[in-house]
Structures are given as structure tokens and as C-alpha cells.
Amino acid sequence: QVQLVESGGGLVQTGGSLRLSCAASGSMSSFTGMGWHRQAPGKQRELVADISRGGSTNYAGSVKGRFTISRVQNTVYLQMNSLKPEDTAVYYCILNQIGRLGGVENYWGQGTQVTVSS
Fold this sequence. Notes:
11 strands, 7-stranded mixed β-sheet
């Protein structure tokens, strides 16, 4: 069992910055990556950024150059700069892991609200 606890969301003006944090605990020795997804009201949840165990990163085109994902030990961060109103969403942390039987296991955080005012 893996637990993910997110923090750092809030209200910020256009052009501002926020840093989201996600601390993982529990049995995660076989994790393959961590990342962030977001979901705005009335929209599907979408990938924002992810980082592999080896440090390779991937970003959605809408956030490239503005967001940076990183990991230190069991905590993943999302540094968000030059925020826009369209970044407003609930942001969810995800951890991917290979289970005992070889299947992929996904663990989700509870979500943290990011609101960018115009």
C-alpha cells in the first residue's frame, strides 16, 4: 500500500508561481515513476508532467517551459511558473509501480486545488 499526500495548492494571480509537493509513503520499492495530472470542472483528467525512476521527464505541451517536475527521495514536486487562468484545476499526484504479479499499480493523491485569477 502506498499513500500520497499533496500540498501547495492555492490562489494566485496570472503570471504568479506555485510549487506543489507530493510525499509518498508505504511500500514503493518497485515504483517506476511519479507524476501530476489535473482536472478542470467539466473536463477530463489530463497528464501534466511525469518523471521516471531514472529521472527522465515528460510534459504536456501546454505547460512546457513553464512547469518543472522533480523528485527528491520519496517526494515529487511541480514548480509552476507564469501561471495562466487555464491552469486552474485540481492537481493530482500519481505514483506508478510494478506489483507482485507483474501488473501496473497506480496510486493517486487526494488532489489539491490550484486557482489562477485573471
